[in-house]
C-alpha cells in the first residue's frame, strides 16, 4: 500500500507509483494529493518549451548536470504529445538523460499530454505537487512547443525558458503567436551553426519591442525597471548555448537562479504561485464538472429521449439540447 510518508521522505518508487495513479485518474491519488499540499511550495519550477528539433531534451540533460554541480535535487517531467489516433505517446525524452539514471537526487518522468491543447495535462500539474513534496529543489517541465501551445507552460512554471535555433524562423513565429509575452529567458541553442548571431540580435530586438508595448519606464542605472503600477519587472534575457557540448549551460543555469533570486527579493514568487493556484483551481473545477456532465449524459433519460427525438426528426439538435438543460438545471435558457 502506498504511504504518504514514503512520498515525503523522497522515495522514487513511491513517487513514481503515485504519479502513475494520477495518470490513471485513480480516486486514491486525489486523497493522497490532498495530504501532500501542506508539504509543497518550496520547489522552483522551470518550464522549457520550443519547437520540435531545437534540442530541448539535450539542453535539459546539460542543465541537470549543472544543477547537480550546485547540489540541487532535480526532477524532470517530459511531456510528450499524445497521438490523436491511438492515444499513445512516444515518451522517448528520458533516453537523452540516461547518464543521470543512477543519481538518487535526480528523478525523470515522461508523461503524455493527453490531448491537452497546451501540451500539458492536469496530471503534469499534479505530478509537480508530488515532486515538490518529495523535496526536489528544481522541477523542470519540458513541454510540447508548437505555436499557441507554448502558452500553457506559463500557468504552471515559475520561470519559462523558450528555446529556438538559428535560421529556424522561430523568432518570427514567436511574434505571430505572442510567445514573447510568456518567456522569461530565451535560448538560442545550436549557436555554433550559421546565423546564430543574427538570431540573437533579432530576439533582442523583439524583446525591446515587447518592453515598449508594456510601457516600461527605466529608473537610474543599476535599478530594475518598473511598470506603471510601481512593481519591479524582470527583464527577459537572451543567451546562446550549444547543449551538445555544454557551451553556455553554466551561464544559463545561473540565469535561471538569478530569476529566482529576483522574484524572491521583490516578493513576486508567492504572488505568482497564488495566481497559478487560482488557475489550477478553475481548471480542476471545469474538469470535475465535465466529468459529472459526461456521467449524466451516459445515464440521463432526458438525454436518451432527446437523442431518439432527433433521430426521428421530431426536433432539431439545438432545441433538444436546450430542452435537456432546462429540465436538469434551474436556470432557463431560451428554446
Q: Tags for this entry?
A:
335 residues, alpha/beta, Rossmann fold, seven-stranded parallel beta sheet, 11 helices, globular
Number of strands: 7
Average pLDDT over all residues: 82
Through-space gap between termini: 52 Å
Biggest β-sheet description:
7 strands, parallel
CATH class of the domain at 39-266: Alpha Beta
| Number of helical elements | 11
Q: Strand-and-helix sequence, N→C?
A: HHHEHEEHEEHEHEHHHH
Query: What radius of gyration results from the CA coordinates?
Result: 23 Å
CATH fold annotation of the domain at 39-266:
Rossmann fold
CATH superfamily of the domain at 39-266: P-loop containing nucleotide triphosphate hydrolases
Show unreliable segments.
83-91, 115-119, 215-224
Descriptive overview:
By secondary structure, this protein is an alpha/beta fold. It has a domain at 39-266: 3-Layer(aba) Sandwich (Rossmann fold), CATH 3.40.50. It contains eleven helices and seven strands. The chain has helices at 4-8, 12-23, 27-36, 56-69, 122-133, 170-177, 196-213, 249-265, 269-299, 301-311, 317-328, and strands spanning 44-50, 74-80, 106-112, 138-142, 159-164, 185-188, 237-240. A seven-stranded parallel sheet has the order 3-2-4-1-5-6-7, with helices on both faces. β6, α7 (196-213) and β7 (237-240) form a beta-alpha-beta unit. The protein is globular and about 70 Å long. The N and C termini lie far apart (52 Å). Residues 83-91, 115-119 and 215-224 have low confidence and may be disordered.
